[in-house]
Amino acid sequence: MSSRYKKLKIFTGNANAGLAEEIAQYLGVPVGDARSTRFCDGEINIKINESVRGADVFIIQPTCAPINENLMELLIMIDAVRRASARRITAVLPYYGYARQDRKTRARDPITAKLVANILVASGARRVLCMDLHAGQIQGFFDIPVDHLPGVPILAEYILQIGLENVVVVSPDLGGVTRARDLAERIGATIAVIDKRRPEPNVAEVSSIIGGIQGKNVIMVDDIIDTAGTITKGAEALKQWGANEIYVACTHPVLSGPAVQRLNEAPIKEVIVTNTIPVPQEKMIDKIKILSVAPLLGEAIIRIHEDLSVSKLFD
User: Fold this and answer.
1) Where are the alpha helices (DSSP H) in 102-176?
2) Structure pTM?
3) 196 catalytic, yes or no?
4) Is 303 helix (H, G, I), strand (E, B) or coil?
């Protein structure tokens, strides 16, 4: 290990050990020796098998499915290293579960994204590093520093490499316009917006398309693909309105329920995602292209460890 990072330690739970290994290789440090097992009754048992006294500890754990298991594992691991006298603990959440429950839309709704923030702080986390929060205001739910990394630069770099021409970037809803504009500016494209409504959760209906897409190659960009209903219905509508080839780009491939089947059957040429969430082998289809966020998270970890500006990564 480089003496430069002798006080930096990387640990991981079971949620995305592969990403943690990639980040550790980028940093040139080993993944910390920790074990997460289950007692016979299902309780989580965490063992930290090396000293963390005085160390700057980064625990990498996206709270993806099974979300409650992964979240609890993260909380217990934070508590373990806090009680072992770590100097600072940063929770690295490439994917922040419960982020879509960020406000009250009906009477008696919980704001679970805020609850999760409270629990993370109470467990002993003193900093949070995350990617593409579903709602930017979640940063304000924490009373500790939050470094929020966008996924668009990684997606834009790949799109520029494949050399698409006559491109329009499409936001699948009005709330994603800022993300679509950011991607469009990075690749030199125009933007359009799909106007949709949700009659019920996980059900989307396309009302109209704002902007010119006829005869153009389309990149539909979002932060999450969950059941893929929004994306596939949007792709079908774009085809009907005269789009040429359709690409989909997103940061977090949740891919729950019928998502993979829907994507496979939709008029989509390629689905570009990142490895914030591991995609199991049974969900890998030829259309899916996975980009690594390890270099970006690795650079952010270095900057946090050395008390440098993280925002400089995107200047």
Assistant:
1) 112-123, 152-162
2) 0.93
3) yes
4) helix
Write the pLDDT tens digit of every residue in 33-87.
Answer: 999 999 999 999 999 999 999 999 999 999 999 999 999 999 999 999 999 999 9
Two structure tokens written together for 36: 């997460």
User: Are 46 and 12 contacting, i.e. CB atoms less than 8 angstroms apart?
Assistant: no
Q: Decide: 170 and 222 in contact? Cβ < 8 Å.
A: no
Residue 95 has a CB neighbour count (10 Å cut-off) of 28
What's the Cα-to-Cα distance from 243 to each of 3, 206, 221, 268, rounded to whole Å?
Answer: 54, 15, 15, 11
List 114, 196, 216, 233, catalytic entry: 196
Q: What is the pLDDT of residues 206-251, one digit of tens each?
A: 778 889 999 999 999 999 999 998 899 999 999 999 999 999 999 9
**DSSP state string for 49-115:** -S--TT-EEEEE----SSHHHHHHHHHHHHHHHHHTT-SEEEEEESS-TTTT--S-SSTT---HHHH
Strands 44-48 and 34-38: antiparallel
How far apart CA 215 and CA 84 sit, in angstroms, is: 60
What separation in angstroms does the CA of 80 have from each of 48, 112, 180, 268, 302?
7, 24, 41, 45, 23
Q: Taking a C-beta distance cutoff of 8 angstroms, is the pair 141, 123 a contact?
A: no
**Cβ of 68: how many Cβ atoms within 10 Å?**
11
Q: Which two tokens stand for residue 283?
A: 């969900």
With beta carbons less than 8 A apart as the criterion, state whether 161 and 143 touch: no
CA distance 42 to 268: 41
Q: Residue 239 corresponds to which amino acid? A: K
Q: What are the E-state strand segments in the chain? A: 8-12, 34-38, 44-48, 56-60, 88-93, 127-131, 146-149, 167-171, 190-200, 203-210, 217-225, 246-253, 270-274, 288-291
